[in-house]
Every structure is written in C-alpha cells, then in structure tokens.
Amino acid sequence: IKFTSKYILQFAVILLGFEMNMASVIQVGKQSILVIFLTLTTAFLTSYYAGKRLQIHKKLAVLIGVGTAICGGSAIAAAAPAIDADDQDISFAISTVFLFNIIAVFLFPFAGHLMNLSDSGFGMWAGTAINDTSSVVAAGYSYSNAAGNFATIVKLTRSLMIVPITLALAIINARASKKQNSNFNFLKVFPWFVAGFLVAAILNSTGLIS
C-alpha cells in the first residue's frame, strides 16, 4: 500500500498531465486559490484550538492540521522532520487522516449526487476538502471523468502549499529550539510529482507529445 500510494499513484498523476492542457491547469488553479487559502486557514485554526481543548500534544496537533489542510500523508511526512516529530506522532497523525480519507472516498460521491453538484462543483469540493491525493483521485473519477480532472488539478495546486508551510514550520521550530534544524531538507519536502504533472501538461500543450 505504501509503495502504491507513494510511487505508482504519483507516477499516474504525472501521466495524467499528458492529457491536460496547460491553459486549463492554470485556469482551474486560479479559480481554486481563494478557496484553498480559506480552507487551509480554517484547518490550521481548527487543529490549533481543538488540540488545546483536547490537550493533544502540540506536534501531533500540527501534523494532523498539516495532513488535513494540505495533502494527507505526504504533507505529514514532509512536515515531521521540520518540527522534529517522533515516530509515534507521525503514525498517529497518518492513521487519523487516512481514516477520514477512506470515509471520504465513499461519502463524497454519494453526497455530491445527492446535492446534484456539477462536475466542476464536485471537483472543487473534493479537491479542497479531501485530504490525500489518492483519495481525491478516487472520489473525483468515481463521480465523473470531468470531475476527476478538475479535482486532481485543484488538489495538485493545494499540494504545492507543502513547500511554504513546511519551510515556515522549520523556521518556527528552529527559532523555538534556538538551533538550526539539521533534519530539514528542502529537496525532500518539494512535491516532485506535482512538478512532473506540470511539465507533462506543458509538453502536451506545445504539441511535442501526441
């Protein structure tokens, strides 16, 4: 499961870029920026206050917030070394986020049809509300091909937030501990499969790949 979700899925997302037009990717990304910003802010504030209310360990609350706000397990794995999280916190956070991912894959398409959402409406909803990329792809394409395409682009735009959020966490943690975080590596944080998707979309738009 780990190999499939980390490598096979990410490679499939890159291949999906060869079916996308770059102009469409930019247009959808622009449409979703405001919604993504609002959902990120809401997720982080909720995890912060819920963590304090429930007396959850601070680093665990941060990991759950990051996983919920950005892209599930990938975001948790990227943020963990930036805040020096231990293995127990990482495992608990991933388990929590993945539980809701599984529920979302089955619940969202059913709820979308119940509310009679359009393909773009469902794609925007799924791409901004479901945590992990794999779950977004599964829910989106089970609704319709158009919804899956839209949801995937929105989700990949959201996944790019891994970089600034993780960098900010690393800086905050380094200042709090008054030492440089030697475990933080920018190259490991960057979601390379998103870059691969964009390159594929560019090649498809230029007609170099047919």
Could you provide a short overview of the structure?
By secondary structure, the chain is mainly α.
Structure report:
There is one protein chain. By secondary structure, the protein is mainly α. It is built from 10 helices and no strands. The chain has helices at about 1-15, 20-55, 60-80, 85-115, 120-130, 135-145, 145-160, 160-175, 185-190, 190-205. Helix 2 packs across helix 7 (about 145-160) and helix 5 (about 120-130) packs parallel to helix 7 (about 145-160). The longest helix is centred in the N-terminal third of the chain and has 32 residues, at about 20-55. The two termini are about 30 Å apart.
Radius of gyration: 17 Å
The number of distinct β-strands equals: 0
The sequence of SSEs as H and E is HHHHHHHHHH
Strand content: under 5%
Give the SSE map:
Layout: H1 2-16, H2 22-53, H3 58-79, H4 87-114, H5 119-129, H6 133-143, H7 145-159, H8 162-177, H9 186-189, H10 192-206
Main attributes of the structure:
210 residues, 10 helices, mainly alpha
